[in-house]
Amino acid sequence: MNDEDDSAPGGRWRHTARLAACVIFLLGMFYLVAVARVIDIDGVRSMVAATGPAAPFVYVPVSAVLGAILIPGPILAAGSGLLFGPLVGTFVTLGATVGTATISSFLGQRAGRDSARALLGTARSDRIDAQVERHGLWAVVGQRFVPGIPDAMASYVFGAFGIPLWQMAAGSFIGSAPRAFVYTALGASIGDLSAPLAYTAIAVWCATAIIGTFAAHRGIKHWRRREVRREPDIESTPEETSRPLVCSEGTDPHA
């Protein structure tokens, strides 16, 4: 599809409908697995535990796929802590988190990358691509620190905006480490939430939430300042290119 087709009303409508269908599908999946609970998480944990010594290696891909279909990460991480304890469980949770981020980002690229570029326009998409190239890794890390944003949903969006898979994997590993410990430790101490491990997990969660909120606030302010500075330059470009050539007296412009 060429640029003219993308900019036409019919082309924009098709891209909008495609993105809307993706969003509705993800929201429907979230309702089924997180609200209606059509998947029995306890049953999944029992099946994984039945594999014996291989259970941690089985739980990583199973949890990664379940996370990609929007089963809440804290539930999966708590199950990891319950099955494997705080130490092994944290590494299992991290492996599953990286897997979920990679799967979700890949699907986001396949489903929404072209439509997102078409709706944003070439100029804005190129600016976003340049920002992704320079700061994509740390955008993923920062998102993992911000509380209240589902990681899988964010990974789908990152994929639609063109974040490379290696940045998704590395960024989710770095940024998810504190919360992986938090939810896994809480799952491991589910029988005694007054244990020091539970208090430590809660303290780590509070610290990462404060750091993430502060960093997100500064990042948004910085991005807005950059956009405000760019707007006058973008608006003045057509006028400058259409301005007639002015020559000094006695000078032939075609000489």
TrEMBL record:
Residues 230-255 are annotated as: Disordered. This is TVP38/TMEM64 family membrane protein. Belongs to the TVP38/TMEM64 family. It is found in: Cell membrane. InterPro entries: TMEM64, VTT_dom. The chain crosses the membrane at residues 16-36, 57-77, 83-107, 153-177, 197-216. Keywords: Cell membrane, Membrane, Transmembrane, Transmembrane helix. Residues 71-188 form the VTT domain. Its main location: membrane. It is a multi-pass membrane protein.
